[in-house]
Amino acid sequence: MLPVLALVGRPNVGKSTLFNRLTRSRDALVADIPGLTRDRQYGIGRIGPGPYLVIDTGGLDGGGDQLVALMAGQVQKAIDEADHILFLVDAHDGLLPDDIEIASRLRREGKPLTLVVNKTDQRDPLMAIADFHQLGLGEPLPIAAVQGRGVTALIEQVLAAHPTTDEAAAPDADDGRIQVAIVGRPNAGKSTLINRLLGEERVVTYDSPGTTRDSIHIPFDHFGRGYTLIDTAGVRRRARVHDPIEKFSIIKTLQAIAECHVVILVLDARAGIGDHDATLAGHILDSGRALVVAVNKWDGLTPEMRGSVKSDLARKLAFLDFAAYHYVSALHGSGVGLLLDEVDRVHANATRDLPTPELTRLLEAAVAEHQPPLVHGRRIKLRYAHQGGRNPPLIVIHGSQTDAVPDSYRRYLTNRFRRALDLQGTPLRIEFRTGANPFAGRRNKLTPSQIKKRRRLRDFVNRRR
């Protein structure tokens, strides 16, 4: 087993910065704003003598609202899972009462602990750590997480007490798991849906838009099949986004869409289907990801309200005719169990091998039933088709004058291929290619007899005038 290191401390002491430094990534959102991190973020440590698991947590403070209490619960779970705690304090701020309170709490946990004094750049390290000796947690270690100074020495000291076994190794990033991104508008129930799928309170849920700010990757096994669930921040209309943190959160959400295998688009049935839902669905379609649509908060709606929602879906999301719709309640769990089965099915469709003979036969049947239009009196000829890519499936069609194929005929072929191949849940792209004409730009050289014939015809025409 890999050693587990938990990063704990007040808000804005540099936990996420150290997390990114240790994992050599940008998975954790970083800004000079307290309380930015709210959920547990896991990563594989890449700095030090061996691999280890590092957990980024939200800041602990003395706030009394419900959201702070939920964040504290996430920190406690990370502490329970950890083999070693890295208690971060801020050299710029010095020793604060909250640090003393957190130190007392961590001391009661009885777990191995290292006091880490961050932000010691541009100052004497011995002077920076002087005030923190009174915490009674051993010799403080000065680091500068932004520059990376002292980080390697810190990890070497920590891992010396937690040697890794020979069989322990860092897991491969591409381990065959299906990457599933949960996206939608703020407060649509994305985090609640993830907690329902996992069967635990893995991410913070709160009845307020914008609770989730970062993209949280959560490995998950279900009946022997591996998944990675990605909880993302809600995406609002651009005109309403003014907070720079929210802008970065939206960027990470769009990156999660581009990098995942399957997207679950969560819609809020009680809020109705808005134009922004259609815009987000269009972005998912452009990315080419396989798609499952989960209409959340379906419980408690009257038959009239359900009929209105279905009418809006058919009208505003008509371009998602290839996707399957599931009507669920993430809070109560109704219909949620079918989502992972649908994810398996659409992922299999998006990555399926399509034999060239079958594609060519389907193309010939489609052309025989409905011929391509004429272009300048000449018929467009489509000769054969083959697969050009997966996720999304790409069908390449070869022929002549294919650059003149109209969009309507492209849609006709797309629908024919999708129905015949049963490619539900994934976009299908078609690419036309025209072979190079070997005689393009070349002129035939006339023989002497052809030259004489042309001269006679020219003389004949001139005499008739």
UniProtKB/TrEMBL annotation:
Residues reported in the UniProt entry to bind GTP 2: 184-191, 231-235, 296-299
Ranges of residues in domain EngA-type G: 3-166, 178-351
Reported function: GTPase that plays an essential role in the late steps of ribosome biogenesis.
Stored Pfam families: KH_dom-like (PF14714), MMR_HSR1 (PF01926)
Matching Gene3D superfamilies: 3.30.300.20, P-loop containing nucleotide triphosphate hydrolases (3.40.50.300)
CDD domains per UniProt: EngA1, EngA2
Family recorded in the similarity comment: Belongs to the TRAFAC class TrmE-Era-EngA-EngB-Septin-like GTPase superfamily. EngA (Der) GTPase family.
Keywords: GTP-binding, Hydrolase, Nucleotide-binding, Repeat, Ribosome biogenesis
Summary of subunit composition and partner proteins: Associates with the 50S ribosomal subunit.
InterPro entries: AAA+_ATPase, G_ENGA, GTP-bd, GTPase_Der, KH_dom-like, KH_dom-like_a/b, P-loop_NTPase, Small_GTP-bd
Key word Repeat present: yes
Keyword ATP-binding in annotation: no
Single GO molecular function: hydrolase activity
Organism whose genome encodes this protein: Thioalkalicoccus limnaeus
Protein name: GTPase Der
Binding site for GTP 1: 9-16, 56-60, 118-121
Domain of life according to the entry: Bacteria
